[in-house]
């Protein structure tokens, strides 16, 4: 009998624990940064995607995020930032920043992703990058000159500093208005990540209107 009473008590305690856990509010799918980061364009709500050309998850995110970016309202500024954790991350990040500075990134972004993810090109050496990009209409000599320029070195420092401020540990990661950080996994999937971004953009828009009144 004593054993039955103890067992019943343990079952009751277990059920109570399960009920208490169920009553707890679910964890937010995003992290609010302790120290908000300044946006690139004051007055606009910023959405940042940190990515790496060598990341298969980033590549899979492309056909989902690109149509979303094209439909963003005029008060939202979308920014891609390469995550640079050393080695090929840095090489690919420098390539992205170079193409962006040359004003051709949007034209060859998909081709670079395909080359690395589908054709298994490494594109780590700058000369290999230049040779490949020449097939996409990018001036080889201009690319190499820009790649090693002082301006690009400054952009590399800036990108790395932003990644530290955002406290990212992987990609693809999104940041909304320098305040909220989440990734595709924490959001529950690619579509859910963009739905979450929309909600946070709406939240910031409402906050801006309230502050203006």
TrEMBL record:
Keywords of the record: Disulfide bond, Periplasm, Redox-active center, Signal
Disulfide bond residue pairs: 55-58
Domain named Thioredoxin: residues: 14-152
InterPro entries: DSBA-like_thioredoxin_dom (IPR001853), DsbA/DsbL (IPR023205), Thiol_disulfide_DsbA (IPR050824), Thioredoxin-like_sf (IPR036249), Thioredoxin_CS (IPR017937), Thioredoxin_domain (IPR013766)
GO molecular function: disulfide oxidoreductase activity
Protein name according to UniProt: Thiol:disulfide interchange protein
Family note: Belongs to the thioredoxin family. DsbA subfamily.
Domain of life: Bacteria
Organism: Pseudomonas frederiksbergensis
PANTHER family, per database record: THIOL:DISULFIDE INTERCHANGE PROTEIN DSBA
GO cellular component, as recorded: periplasmic space
One Pfam short name: DSBA
Entry's localization field: Periplasm
Signal peptide, first to last residue: 1-22
